[in-house]
Amino acid sequence: MRISSAPAAAQSVNPKIALVVGTRPEIIKLAVLSKLLGERAYLIHTGQHFDDNLSAAFFATFGLTPPQLCLDGVGGASRAQQFSLITGELGRHFAERRPDAVVVQGDTNTAAAAAQAAHFAGIPVVHVEAGLRSNDRAMPEEINRILIGVVADHHCAPTEESAANLRLAGVDPRRVTVTGNTVVEATLECLPGPQDTEAVLSAHGVQAGHYALATIHRPENTDDPRRLDAILTELAKLPVPVVFSTHPRTRAAATRHGLSAALDRLGPVEPVGYRDFLALAQGAMLLISDSGGIQEECTVLKKPLIVVRNSTERPEAVEAGFAERVQPGPAISRAASRLLADTGLHARLAATPSPYGDGLASQRIVAILSQFTR
Question: pTM higher than 0.85 for the full model?
């Protein structure tokens, strides 16, 4: 495994804070924070998402400086291998170049492994989007959240409910701050205007308010052929066209399970850039997904969402009326039909504040990080 570095000119400043990312959601949710910190911080990319459509393109979308460190060999490895590679390589890096603090975001293998590597090196860990809990230990992300919760030195909770989870787990309340979720400012910053949105919709052959947007990628849905088959079958039954943005894992699973024909009937599209995705979401009548991030973004876009999951670590979206959780199968089309027929739904959601904050989370996190820098 190798570590590649940015050009020497890019390292002329000595940044004090390391922001570790490895997946598309981490890049999105730390982008505004990275820009606010400027030369005080540098990016490390583990390569957990190694497809350009899922990672590299997002640095350009947000106008971010390329990562100063990129790990090689993490993407596509098993979970155990990813933990081993990330902790080992970051451990060596932190021994050579010791930041004042390490920031991790969310619940990925990257976040959990990087938090442990920093903790092992005695470097303070600041966890962005801390305190989420599904209470479902079958979810790999739930274990990651618990691990990070144990080693983090400061917890930036997106909601009061998340903060309460941390206090219930015994975290010192002085180390917990309710900041809001950084996805709010990321969504608002990247939301395209009407002309750009119209161009994206036209390129996909759909009209605003006349289609549903779907994404499915979680292992609980893609690793089980019966669940994936049920989801694809129900999406095909919807009374409106479906734009199905297909994650590489989903396409590979469909092939592995002999479901390629069912997938192809939906006319799947390749993953799109963040702005294009927001354009498609903004124009849709209904969102259907198992994504965690979309459960947050729908509250900013004011769109109804069907969450196809066993459990969710984001109950706030459900409680606020934006999201409804269902199991794969007929429940998907039943919920879709009911939501599509609710003529007052969009007006109600438009008047409902996002439970994930006011778009100032990154500013609050910058203030927290000042406590750890010399």
Answer: yes
Distance (Å) of CA 46 to CA 73, 140, 243: 9, 18, 30
Q: What share of the chain is helix, strand, coil (3-state, %, to 5)?
A: 50, 15, 35
Let me know: does 246 contact 271? Beta carbons within 8 Å.
yes
- Give the three-state DSSP class for 156: strand
Across the beta sheet with 154-157, what order do the strands follow?
Answer: 3-5, 69-71, 41-45, 17-21, 101-105, 125-128, 154-157, 176-178
Distance from chain centroid for Cα 108: 9
| Those residues with Cβ within 8 angstroms of residue 279's Cβ, 6 or more apart along the chain or in another chain | 192, 196, 197, 200, 201
**Exposed, middle or buried, 281 (CB in 10 Å: 0-12/13-18/19+)?**
buried
The active-site residue out of 155, 217, 247, 257 is: 217
Per-residue pLDDT of the chain (374 residues; tens, 9 = 90+): 444 444 434 444 678 999 999 999 999 999 999 999 999 999 999 999 876 655 667 788 888 988 999 999 998 899 999 999 999 999 999 999 999 999 999 999 999 999 999 999 999 999 999 999 999 999 999 999 999 999 999 999 999 999 999 999 999 999 999 999 999 999 999 999 999 999 999 999 999 999 999 999 999 999 999 999 999 999 999 999 999 999 988 999 999 999 999 999 999 999 898 999 999 999 999 999 999 999 999 999 999 999 999 999 999 999 999 999 999 999 999 999 999 999 999 999 999 999 999 999 999 999 999 999 87
Residue 217 is a catalytic residue: yes
Taking Cα atoms as reference points, which of 181, 196, 333 lies closest to residue 276? 196
